[in-house]
Design brief:
single chain; mainly alpha; 8 helices
Length: 195
Amino acid sequence: MTEGNPGGNAENMMDGASAYTDAARARLATAFEACDLADLARAAVPIGEHELRPDGGVRSPGSVLADAAQVLAAARRFLEAAAVFERLGGASWQLIGDVLGVEARAARVRFAMAEAQVREELRHPEGAGPAAARAEASWWRAYATGSPLEAARDLDDWVLRHADADGNGDSSLTTTPVSGGLVRTEPQQPTQHHP
């Protein structure tokens, strides 16, 4: 995936933020959080050649724990993005609470601010809105909100690259495993004026 401001070409203009539903863009943000989580977890698997001293001690105390803390933080971001996606897709706080094994009120307390922040970002994909919300949002979430098709294509590449590397031969994957699932908004129909 590449960082940057991809919004300038004609394809992005046709497939900009307003071309996709809020739930589709929220699902895309959830997909990115899953991607980030997977990359962090995958990076923590190999044992570096110089991680352990010959006596079995650790060369850099705390480094593996720091990696685990990063994975945990990414898992929390993934959970939050999934809850927001479910809300934008119409799920009640009761359903979210039931799935998580908590009261509906606790689910609302836990995720309502994140939902409000994402709704604001979706209303203002160009970066308007509260400065604090923009500061906390990752560059990628702003990219996915403003240029969903291009962001989804980056995730298509990630999924296909990892499916090939894993060699699991998932025959259910298409060439567009992320972008192929995005749902477009209904085009606005002109209203008819009757004399």
